[in-house]
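Researcher: For the record, we're logging two predictions in this thread. I'll number them. Prediction 1 follows.
Model: Prediction 1, sequence and structure:
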Amino acid sequence: MYQPPQFRLGRAECHRAIEAAPFATLVTREASGAPDADHLPLLLTPAADECSPDRLRGHIARANPLAHRLEGGMDDVEALAIFHGPQAYITPSWYPAKQAHGKVVPTWNYQVVHVHGRLRLIDDPYWLHEMVVALTERFEGERESPWRVSDAPDDYIAAMCRAIVGVEITVERLEGKRKASQHKSLEERRAIYQGLRDEYGHDEQDATCLGGIPTSYSAGD
């Protein structure tokens, strides 16, 4: 991924971006060498120490051709998981420079993380059950009355788990990028922030991210 230094995210920032937007595009290669893409939520397990790797875990349908390839001897394959964060078209009409001299053009601001690593299949009933529980707790957790795996009959959950297989990526490299007009003046970045809020309806967190301004900034500052 093209990475100008001012747009590069550090490891901790990559982790936060993944946790905020865990729905990934998982890119692998078919036996022929052709690229293949799947889409699924992946949960990050950060490394316990400097000697251990980060890991991403999720599941796919047992009927998925990727599962068949992994079962057929292609286990531990090269994989790329792409996590897309907030993104937006940036109109030059927001820039103060448009009125001053008109030398402005549109752009697109975005945040994305690429995770490179080795993918393996996990076909273990206990692991799959724990994975389903972890995913459910992650995405139901903020609801007032969250649904729990234990709300469904045990035999039904067991049958559902038999229809899936687990996948785990051992992370070898993280690349994170936030293209948010960081090279522009604070005045222009504040104008982007305000345009994202007022015209597009972005919330404060996403507008701050895409505006490339300090997180302490608010419209009243």
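Researcher: Logged. Prediction 2.
Model: Prediction 2, sequence and structure:
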Amino acid sequence: MPARESPVDACPGALRLHKAADGPLARVRLPGGMLTGPQLTALASLAAAFGDGHLELTSRANVQLRALREADPAVLAARLSAAGLLPSETHETVRNIAAPPLADATIRALVTDLDRALCATPALAALPGRFLFAIGPTTLDADVAALPVADEAFAILFAGHDAGLRVAADGVVAALLAAANAFLAERAAQAGSASDAPAWRLHELPNGPARVAVRTAAVLGLPTSTVGAGKPADAPPASVATDGLPLFPPPLEPVRQIGFVREGMGDPTPTLTPAPTLAPAPAPIGVVRQGDGLVAVGALVPLGRLGGEALRLLATARRLVVTPWRGVVVPDLTPEAARRWARALDDAGLPVDPTTRWAGVTACAGRPGCAKSLADVRADADSTSAYSDGLPVHWIGCARGCGSPSGPHVRVEATPSGYAVTRQPDEEMFTGDTARAVAAARRI
């Protein structure tokens, strides 16, 4: 997680541009990572007209436009709005909604409904730009999440903690909005008690998950002392269809009750334990089954820089999904169409082979785009990366660690004396030649 340098929430957006070393930067939110071919065409046109001609994919499955030195902010906003990529000027930095790359129709509809309802709630414009919603199992650390379980029920998690709150599918949006409002209320109630800096994430509030869970239950009118079972269990690995293709997403274990199902929630400040880790599907690379009879093709975008022929090719797709692995999925294909797409993507420089050297390799912007960076980390990652089936590796130009994965990974940090290679989160150090140190650290 990036280190905080200021109490001011300055997350960039499409209207609030970031002053990077290579020029203004705009971040366009894509709830659920979803966009259409025409929307990608609009983004490519803006990058060509005002920026460096590339789109930059982020670890939250959003898109950034860099080097916007010639951009008129009003024109930029108007063109994004016309493309359906800026539905709200007041809420543009809070539309942070994660979802599985191969989410089914129900999850996709909930993402769209949540985005619409979020933008229609004036008070939630005050959410920090780092506050993250999630619907479905993802690799990201969400502040509030709704995980589908059984019998059309969803478990509501608070910063990864299970308070036992269960809602039906038609109650997911209301529950997540109530949780976001509860976060703001609890943050205001704790103001000045713990730190001068306001909390940006739920886990930053003392006992925040439990307190916000109780506030959320009160708003929804759910009981807070019901006893039962219902914590989501560990999900098994993604299953495999009879044709050998991975089947997404993996199933989750059922729950038995809608409401609160953890004893002790009557306590106004109960102590919660983290929910068992749910196993989201792995990065979709190559041809994978969706679970509805159709297939999809997933490709990695090396170091998240998308441009040229690859960008033009993807813009011809009807629907696309950007992934947190800095990749792109073309969904809803027949097997024959998927094979054609896979060949075309590979020819355009977007790997579709899970054993590509780019699997699990990411980096921050580095030099020359970031003034704080001590190295051109993308160039160094390019010159040293090799395939590994071990831990992912993230290259960073300074101690802030922008874009770092939330789970275990290898951190390659530029320092004044060279790269420091550590295995996170235990910070075990690996020394010597950088390429060899990275290879050793990734082995598990």
